[in-house]
Design brief:
By secondary structure, this protein is of the alpha/beta class. 24% of the residues lie in helices and 14% in strands. It has a 7-stranded mixed β-sheet, sandwiched between helices. The protein has a 3-stranded antiparallel β-sheet with strand order 8-10-9. α4 links the parallel β5 and β6. α7 packs across α9. 46% of the residues are buried.
């Protein structure tokens, strides 16, 4: 399909502020940062380096600058880029917020990250922390906007309660927020981090578009987000990370497959389908994760098939899955901390955004 949407990085030489060719910039990128023709954004920056700006440093979010760290809570260390001979700073390790030393000498930080439209996905929180650090250092933030792959219309889930902010939600927003990363920066994060901000706009995106309506290729933003199907169920099925259920990590269908060694899959799946949840169907199956929870052990459960994504409600669906498991299986439990740098509250509580008993009495 020919792309109906033009990304800022597709025409960066045309829309880059022409009155500031001497800007010294850093760039926050990851492995999914490409043009619509799959040219890496870093290659675009290299081509313009010394003309439109001077590239002095690189930054990377969770999963690494190249997107290689497989699981949650795996930190990575910065390094010197072997070809460009400039530093690559890790923002998922010793530091999640750029230090003054990292920003020293920079005039602007250019950001091109692929988000998936869910509050738990940490790239947007790396952006917020960068905006805070850049405001403190008087460094401009330039965000290359990208479409929300789950469309810009459907919102699901309440913002977090006060005191339940974390690295899977540093600022109160709905679970499925329906905003682009540029809209989050400009409309939501700016009130907390009023940095000097420039948003480079998308061209041709309409709010009702899902990712596959845009004509843009899917570039894997993290190792366990391989397809749009994964992203579609993720705003709900990520909740399983806070439980002893496998959410399918270590399989080829993370977040679509789920289960545990002690579930009776056929009865369980039949009961799930009897709930009549909109836009989906559960198919019983067994699987063996290769890593993470229950690695090397056969799990029984289901595959979540989305049959009508326009009426499918991922958060409601996951909540009903969890209610049924809790009522049926005494082996079920909430996982203890730590989770994404939170050491006191239950992982499920920071994912839900409030006390677990408010959601599961």
């Amino acid at each position: 399909m020919m792309s109906q949407v033009t990304l800022p990085v597709d025409r960066l030489s045309e829309i880059w502020p022409s009155d500031r060719p001497q800007l010294k910039i850093g760039a926050l990128l990851h492995g999914a940062s490409t043009t619509s023709s799959l040219e890496p954004t870093l290659d675009v920056l290299e081509r313009l380096n010394g003309q439109a700006f001077h590239l002095k440093a690189l930054f990377g979010p969770q999963h690494g600058f190249a997107g290689t760290t497989q699981d949650n809570m795996i930190e990575w260390s910065g390094y010197q880029h072997p070809r460009l001979d400039i530093p690559v700073y890790s923002l998922y390790g010793e530091h999640r917020k750029p230090t003054p030393e990292m920003l020293d000498g920079l005039d602007a930080l250019f950001v091109d990250l692929v988000d998936v439209g869910a509050r738990y996905y940490t790239f947007i929180w790396t952006l917020l922390l960068c905006m805070e650090a850049c405001r403190e250092a008087d460094v401009e933030v330039i965000v290359a906007d990208r479409p929300n792959p789950l469309n810009g219309e459907t919102i699901e889930g309440d913002p977090q309660d006060p005191g339940y902010e974390s690295f899977v939600g540093l600022h109160p927003i709905p679970v499925r927020h329906a905003k682009t990363i540029g809209e989050l920066a400009n409309e939501t994060f700016r009130e907390r981090a009023p940095a000097r901000l420039t948003i480079l706009p998308i061209d041709g995106w309409e709010r009702e578009m899902w990712h596959d309506d845009t004509g843009l290729p899917w570039t894997i933003p993290s190792p366990n987000m391989p397809t749009l199907d994964t992203a579609t169920v993720y705003p709900g099925m990520c909740l399983l990370e806070g439980t002893n259920l496998s959410e399918g990590r270590g399989t080829t269908r993370p977040f679509e497959l789920f289960g545990a060694p002690w579930i009776k899959e056929e009865v369980f799946t039949r009961e799930l389908n009897q709930l009549g949840l909109p836009g989906c169907h559960f198919r019983s199956l067994s699987f063996e994760p290769t890593f993470q929870k229950h690695a090397g052990v056969i799990c029984h459960g289901a595959q979540l098939h989305v049959t009508d994504r326009d009426c499918f409600l991922p958060l409601r669906t996951a909540m009903e899955i969890l209610r049924l498991v809790r009522e049926t299986y005494p082996q079920f439990s909430w996982n203890p901390p730590p989770y994404e740098y939170e050491t006191e509250k239950l992982p499920i509580e920071i994912l839900l955004g409030g006390p677990v008993e408010n959601y599961f009495p």
